[in-house]
Q: What sequence folds into this?
């Protein structure tokens, strides 16, 4: 992603941003008086902070860029993911699952998600087992976020990749270690506000450049005959309509993207911990409107602007958006060629905020699991701030090691992500064939 902006201005704004974030980290340090403050933010977090922190943790850089590019390919049918994220990821998560997690966590005195599970079922084994899963699996996700953030910083500021990787990891680890979950949630809230502003401006400017809402959407609908033949052959009917029911494109959109992302949000422990920071159930009720608005502005804008980039590129270059490369390059290219210099910097901060908020939450979850649920318990000691800080440092080093070893480009083009759908279909066909053969054998043996 090549930024067409002044390097000096960019560096100045980034430095101001970093000072603000580290200042909030110090604020978290000042507010942390006991281990409960460090691990669950004192169970007294403002609803607005909970909502923004939850949303900023949920939405990463790859979601903004990747969702927009995917929508440029598959169209506004992906809006169903926004609906599912609001219904499942906000309403069900906050009002049904979240309230129970907060109430039970407070009653049992649980400070981490593994401890909550263990105390609910009276099983120390469950604490260690779930903790081991977190510690073993989450560094892979963390390493992917580290790589994406470092590559983004490398191309934006023009610095070496390893310098960007170490600097990015170091800054996030610093405020997470010193300020705990209070620092994480307040920095998430600021980063979430930046993300809201960036995506809101992107939506407005896009419709302004394309002549307004009606003109832009009408132009996109009129482009239906331009759907690539390879996509039309597997069920795509246009960028403003749903694919043919049951077609390969429909399966990819609904089963892989909509259901996979929309339901999967409930299984992320770094999000569930946010519910344990609320003072009471009413706080979670008050967090729902802001949480829903945040999801609409993140995913909804991406799923709107993504398809509309086809209109812009067709009018300016005579080609569809994906002609410029794979889906992941659509939004960065559109920002660079269509948007004013100041917004390029705002969008840069939007992506940086998305990466840092996700990374900080992952680090805190992994570190408290390793330092508290595993190390402290094995030593027969109570939770301590120092043990959790050591755990965070260890998990950051482990994630860094994976990030160095892993290829820098860990994400495949979006068109290759439907591979697992084809594999699943093949498996289902094979399963049906096997079952049919077994029924035939049973029929022969029974003489039917």
A:
């Amino acid at each position: 992603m090549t930024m067409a902006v002044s390097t000096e201005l960019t560096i100045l704004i980034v430095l101001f941003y970093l000072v603000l974030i580290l200042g909030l980290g110090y604020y978290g340090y000042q507010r942390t008086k006991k281990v409960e403050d460090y691990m669950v933010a004192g169970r007294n977090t403002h609803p607005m902070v909970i909502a923004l922190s939850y949303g900023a943790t949920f939405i990463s850089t790859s979601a903004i860029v990747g969702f927009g590019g995917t929508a440029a390919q598959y169209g506004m049918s992906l809006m169903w993911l926004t609906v599912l994220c609001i219904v499942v990821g906000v309403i069900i998560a906050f009002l049904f699952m979240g309230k129970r997690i907060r109430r039970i966590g407070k009653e049992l005195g649980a400070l981490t998600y593994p401890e909550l599970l263990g105390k609910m079922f009276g099983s120390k084994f469950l604490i260690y087992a779930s903790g081991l899963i977190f510690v073993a699996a989450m560094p892979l996700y963390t390493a992917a976020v580290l790589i994406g953030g470092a590559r983004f910083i490398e191309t934006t500021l023009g610095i070496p990749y390893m310098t960007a990787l170490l600097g990015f990891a170091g800054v996030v680890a610093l405020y997470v270690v010193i300020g705990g979950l209070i620092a994480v949630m307040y920095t998430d809230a600021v980063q979430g506000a930046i993300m809201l502003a960036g995506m809101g401006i992107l939506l407005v400017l896009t419709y302004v450049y394309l002549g307004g809402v009606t003109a832009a959407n009408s132009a996109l609908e009129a482009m239906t005959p331009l759907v690539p033949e390879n996509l039309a052959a597997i069920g795509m009917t246009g960028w403003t309509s749903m694919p043919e029911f049951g077609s390969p494109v429909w399966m990819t959109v609904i089963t892989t993207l909509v259901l996979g992302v929309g339901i999967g949000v409930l299984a992320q422990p770094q999000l569930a911990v946010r519910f344990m920071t609320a003072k009471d159930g009413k706080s979670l009720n008050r967090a729902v409107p802001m949480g829903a608005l945040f999801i609409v502005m993140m995913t909804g804008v991406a799923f709107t602007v993504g398809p509309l980039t086809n209109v812009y590129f067709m009018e300016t270059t005579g080609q569809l958006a994906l002609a410029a490369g794979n889906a992941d390059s659509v939004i960065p290219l559109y920002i660079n060629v269509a948007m004013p210099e100041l917004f390029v910097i705002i969008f840069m901060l939007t992506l940086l905020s998305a990466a840092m908020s996700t990374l900080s939450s992952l680090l805190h979850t992994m570190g408290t699991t390793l330092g508290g649920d595993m190390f402290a318990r094995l030593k027969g000691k109570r939770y301590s701030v120092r043990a959790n800080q050591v755990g965070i440092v260890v998990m950051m080093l482990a994630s860094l090691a994976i990030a160095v070893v892993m290829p820098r480009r860990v994400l495949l083009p979006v068109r290759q992500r439907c591979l697992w759908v084809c594999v699943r279909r093949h498996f289902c066909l094979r399963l049906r064939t096997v079952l049919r053969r077994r029924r035939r054998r049973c029929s022969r043996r029974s003489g039917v």
